[in-house]
Amino acid sequence: MPNADLANPLSSSVRGITCMVAGMALLTLNNAVTKALTVGYPPGEVVVLRAIFVFLPISFLVWREGGLSALRINNLGGQLVRAGFLVVSTFLMIIALRLLPLADVMAITFAGPLIITALAAPMLGEHVGWRRWAAVFVGFTGILIMLKPDPDVFQLAALLPLCVAFSSSMRDLVTRRISVGESSTAILCFSTSAVLVSGFLTLPFSATAVVPSDIPLFALAGCLQGAAHYVLIESFRHGEAAVVAPFKYSALLWATVFGALIFGDFPDAWIWAGSVPVVASGLYILHREALAYRRRR
Q1: Which among 25, 20, 153 is positioned nearest to 96, based on CA atoms?
Q2: DSSP state of 261
Q3: What is the rounded CA–CA span in Å between residue 285 and residue 127?
Q4: Which uninterrupted H or E stretch holds 110?
Q5: Which of 14, 84, 118, 176 has most Cβ atoms within 10 angstroms of its Cβ?
Q6: pTM of the model
């Protein structure tokens, strides 16, 4: 599926950023549900049961897009590489959620946009100037202010979400490269199948009986996971990786909203202070993209 937005880079970037913000909202909810499930189930079993339900949104997308032709694979090598990075990041994220507080995991994985910005130039040929670098660092500083990580987070287990950040960044960069010739549904289905198979391989070594009342939670997590990754794939189809990646920071804003509405946790002064550089850095990156677009016209 060719990228239809190449004729209008600014519109493409806005679409990519919108998809990223929406995708991070869905992913934040998914992480909260998944963390609850890791209390009673081993990582491989969580991977399998959640992945099974990811095929519900995949089936809807296949139906909406006209049938099985939406799953056509044109770049098997690229699909395998992306699937490999997704398998690694999925397992490491579930283990990290089991061992560390959700906020700490989120704080460390926010190193991802910095990794993407660093690798976007050599891997994708995208130009990343010093101003965009500065904006990303400002945004990351805001994240640290909001989360004010506990000193205990810097333990050996903290390397897990850092590895998640690297694996996810590589996955996103590969997504950007292969999305020119692959449909988002095909990418999602192939990678989900790889995750499902990898999870099944762990079941003989660790599995526990499923509590019937937990099945709706697995279904919810799977549907959120499927919808989130589809939207995130679309994000990297429409926008340059270095432009859309910093908007992963919006996950913290979503976590603040969901925490207040669901758990009654209201932001303190640190959250409000940190949100200023996060929002400002994201708006500045969009501003720089608008200037670049006007120069290209």
Answers
A1: 153
A2: I
A3: 13
A4: none
A5: 176
A6: 0.76
- Where along the chain do its domains lie? 9-129+151-241
Dig out the tokens for 248 from the structure.
């992963």
Dihedral of CA 27/255/219/61: which sign? negative
Instruction: Report the C-alpha gap between 297 and 291 in whole angstroms.
Output: 10
- Amino acid of residue 42: P
The Cα 50–Cα 219 span in angstroms is 7
Helix axes 9-37, 102-109, angle to 10 degrees: 150
Whole-angstrom distance, CA of residue 51 vs CA of residue 46? 8
Length of the chain: 297
Rounded to whole angstroms, how far apart are CA atoms 116 and 168? 9
What does the alpha-carbon distance between residue 70 and residue 238 come to, in Å, rounded to a whole number?
Answer: 18
Q: How far apart (Å, rounded) are the C-alpha atoms in residues 153 and 238?
A: 35
Task: Tokens for 167, please give them.
Answer: 């694996």
DSSP designation for 212: G
Task: Give Rg (Cα) of the chain.
Answer: 19
Task: Find all residues with CB under 8 Å of 136, minimum gap 6, and list them.
Answer: 113, 114, 117, 246, 281, 285
CA-based nearest residue to 12, from 2, 24, 25, 26: 2
Instruction: Report which of 9, 270, 257, 244 is spatially closest to residue 132, judged by C-alpha positions.
Output: 244
Contact 41, 94 (CB under 8 A): no
Q: Write out pLDDT tens, residues 221-276.
A: 999 988 998 898 888 778 777 778 778 778 877 877 777 777 676 666 776 777 78
